[in-house]
Structures are given as C-alpha cells and as structure tokens.
Amino acid sequence: QYKFRDLTMEELKNVNTFFPHFRYSMDTYVFKDSSQKNLLNFTGTIPVMYQGNTYNIPIRLWILDSHPFAPPICFLKPTANMGILVGKHVDAQGRIYLPYLQNWSHPKSVIVGLIKEMIAKFQEELPLYSLPSSDEAQQVDLLAYIAKITEGVSDINSKNWANHENKTVNKITVVGGGELGIACTLAISAKGIADRLVLLDLSEGTKGVIMDLDIFNLPNVEISKGL
C-alpha cells in the first residue's frame, strides 16, 4: 500500500543504523476526519541532555503511505508516571510540531535529520516531566481518555452527534485543577466535542490556571470554583 515502498524501506534501514533500539509495527491510525489507515510506525526513546542530565524521551512516529514525500506524524509516548509539558513544539495530546516537519521536502528531508532536530529542540525545552506517585493513577486515566478522543472513538464524541441532532447544548465539566486539569481541558477543546467546557478547579487559587489557559485563547471554556 506504500506508494514508494523502496524509498521508504531504504530510509528506515538508515534509521535503524542510527537508532537500532526502535521497534516497528503496522497499526491503524485514525485521522481527525475519522478515516483510518494501516500505517507503519515505530516507537522508542531518544536521548535528550537537559541541564546536565540525560533523559530518555519516548516517541512514536507514524509513516504515511506517501512517504518520503510527506513527513511523519510524530507523538510523544509518555508512560503513566510522565506528564506532558505543553509548549511551542508539543500540544496537550503529545503531538510534536517542528520546523523540520513544516519544511519537509524530499530528498533533503530525512527521518534521521528529523529526530536530530527533535533532540535539539527538546534540549531547549523538555517535553515531559515526572509525576508524583499520587498522580500516576490519574495520569493513566487521562492518557486513556486522550487516546480515545484523539482517535475519534470516545463515548462523548458519539453523544455529541446525538445532541447535535436534537439541537441541545453539549456541556462537559473537567473536575480538578493543576496541570492534569489543564491538559484534559486542552485535549477536549482541541477535539471540538463540547459546546461549553467548564474546568471545575477545587484548588485554593485559580490565578495560575487562568493565566495558563489564557495563553491558548480557548473558545467556550470557563473556570469555575464551585458546583
């Protein structure tokens, strides 16, 4: 199904030379329009030096069937004890955005070059952080939920279509402040599955949360301190 199979396989051999620990598989990727394709993808960690320490950052790259004329789709692949640091190169779902991807052009653009830029950018701004053990259970639920809504199979997504038919307003409330609450709010907002989105912050203050959300200029999102 790959249009340029020989070119793709040749490049992946080169990737394996530089990063032999990557693991390859064929899996179904669900696009934003709910269309699906079986795509080659690989996972592994890349070494990132940050403030004198080396971190192994887990990533997953999906290779489109038009490769090498289209860039890979890149994601972080955090474990349950890792949180995503949303920044200029990473969104709340862990998708990675880089100048190398934006300016992708065969034959000068290659996956090894992409990964090298990824490492360089992550050395400037680390994309993940370690969660306290008390937050790990919440992170497991959050990662599972984000995976569902980014793959278009969320129960909430199907309910939204039903509500659309009945002309009702679909309101979603995220309970809990802090970085986990913000990450979940960003994920739901990015999917566009709610007419009204409320972050119910039960912490002592909301100033930091408000400032963080203001950066993203999210529509139809409000912060509440009480039920």
Automatic annotation (TrEMBL):
GO BP term (any one): endosome to lysosome transport
UniProt superkingdom: Eukaryota
InterPro entries linked: ESCRT-I_UEV_domain, Lactate/malate_DH_N, NAD(P)-bd_dom_sf, UBQ-conjugating_enzyme/RWD, UEV_N
CC terms in the record's Gene Ontology section: ESCRT I complex
CDD domains reported in the protein's UniProt record: UEV_TSG101-like
Residue stretches making up the UEV domain: 1-132
GO molecular function: oxidoreductase activity; ubiquitin binding
Pfam families: Ldh_1_N, UEV
PROSITE patterns: UEV
Gene3D superfamilies linked: NAD(P)-binding Rossmann-like Domain, Ubiquitin Conjugating Enzyme
Protein name: UEV domain-containing protein
